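Field: COMPLEX_INPUT
Field: COMPONENT_COUNT = two
Field: RESIDUE_TOTAL = 720
Field: MODE = joint
Values follow.
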Amino acid sequence: MIQVKDISKKYGTAEVLNVDALEIPTGESFGLVGNNGAGKTTLFNIMLDLVRPTTGSITTNNIQVNESEEWKTFTGSFIDESFLIGYLTAEEYFDFIGDLRGMNKADVTSFLAQFEEFFNGEILGKKKYLRDLSKGNQKKAGIVAAMMGNPKVVILDEPFANLDPTTQIRLKKLVKELTNEKDVTVLISSHDLSHVTEVCERIVVLDKGNVVKDIQTSPATLKELEAYFAV
Amino acid sequence: MNSHFLRLEWKQYFRSSYWQTGIALKVIMVFFALYFLVSFLALGIGSFFLIRKLYPDSDPLQVVNTYLVFAFLGDLVFRYLMQKIPIMNIKPLLILDIKKKSIVHFILTKSAFSFFNVMPLFFYIPFAIVLVGQGYNGLGVTGWFFTMLFLTLFNNYVNFLINKNQKIFFTLATILAALCSVQYFGVYDVASAAGPLFDAIYAEPIWALVPLVLVVLSYNANFNYLKTRVYLDDAVKKDVKEVKSVDLSWTDRFGEVAPFLRNDIRLIWRNKRPRTVFLLSFVFIAYALIFFTQEVYEQKMPVFLIFAALFVTGGFVMNFGQFIPAWDSAYYKMIMSQNIKYRLFLESKWYLMVVMTFVLYLLSIPYIYFGLDKFLMITAGAIYNIGFNSILLLYAGSFNRKRIDLDKSAFANYQGTSATQFIVIIPILALPMLLFWIFKTTISFNAGILSIAVVGLLTLVFKKYLMNFIEKKYIQDKYAAIHAFDQTT
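Field: COMPLEX_OUTPUT
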């Protein structure tokens, strides 16, 4: 379970995030939507202890993220391409992350085997550095790396952006599989309302740093969101 | 149209990250630039008189002329290795309402003003002025000077053509090597065969039109070549090299730090700037030769021998260590959100510095030739580098707040440099020199050397405690570093 308490973030006098309370139960697939500058990435960055909140705190599984680093053992994340090591090949990168997550070479190989379809033959065995891959293929590598080592919490910022339609559909399938077990919490932010309503049980809308909607997804959700954003 | 281009160039230059530095650094950069400028001017002015002193019987201009063949061929080889046509910048222009012709003219003209073409002028211009001052025929010197200018530009354009083709390059390099060896072994005097060509231009300046024609021809060849190739899948293409993976499983013996060590090795080998730093550290081994071969240091300033001794094994520690952890700045966020013990991240850097210093130490063994005392100095320096400097630079690294782009060249690159890099020089270099001086003057030479080694050993003994302290500092400063490394100026 992830608990957000009184989180706010100010840069100078500009407040970019202000969330009083938010609870994300274990096993939930949680979607975060909002226009540019709504504070989605900031919230994720605070959850990953990459940015300090001005006030408040976030705890995941009873660990306050800025006090203990234990959350790192069960959290996988991909925010942007700065999470990739550009001068490694995809295989080397997965080996590195695998090493950090206590997987040996055989574990990594069998783990990657299940993503063969997702990779679509464009990631492995390409003899290319990650920095030379296309944006979409970089994203694929980053998303899969975030899922290594059986994480209990997976945080993906804009995972659908830059992906081709086939891969988007495959990613949705992946996310659903991940949350089917009901013990992996998946947090996704997206600008694509239809994707996010399709995979997330719950959707929170941020606007200028504030939670303005908190919806349990139903068949009517997409219409409701479209109506909200069609200003 | 040209004024648009010029304005873009102006902004590109003055808004480049190069200038986004503190005022102190700017002052130092300007100082260095002036220093080099003055040095080259001095060389240009002085060489005439120097040559006249060395070869009193011959005409300095003719002496220079005889070696020009080698200079221009060498220049071409150097350019092939270093200079690329600046074509990537035009990508945003391709979709605008600009004729492809004028884009190509623009990059070709722009390349004429590159560093590689301006640099030689600092020799040719003062040399030409001195020639006129010494009573040489003004018209002749003008012709000669323009020949130099045209040939430099000719090289500039020829290089872009060769750059596409390795075969031509190797042919040229072979020709140069052949000419050099033929000259050296006295088989055939290339120099005096080629020299008269340039002498002739001085005598009949009208011949300077020949190199001008060469420039025009090479420019046109480039123009015709590029005109049809300004496409994203042709000339305007980023080179993607195929990866050659090397098996690094031998690093497994380092246990927990192995994955980091593997990354660091790949970091160094696959990125331009750290690779240059790595290769330069081997050049640093030779640094002490300057000091050890001069009697004056031994007799009057032995403290400078310590300075040199530290550099012999310290090239890597100093050049690599000073930018920890900025080497990893591009993916620092990932490192900070992964299941990583900060300690291991730092330890791997430490191992790397220690192993490299040790390798450099082994390579410095031939210095025994200069006497055991010199070698003891190097040994003490190595111990100091391994013990004290490596730990100190790790600590100093926690103050680094400047991002480094790994793929930029290392030469004259101040990215990542801040006050930290200047302040640490004191304990890194000045402290051992001071220690040596104190113990040498009060006790003995050996005590001086010993004192340096002892400081290194002591730090090594307390390494664990110091690393705890350093680790805490890094964790404490984590957010500031993440924020700073995110700034991509």
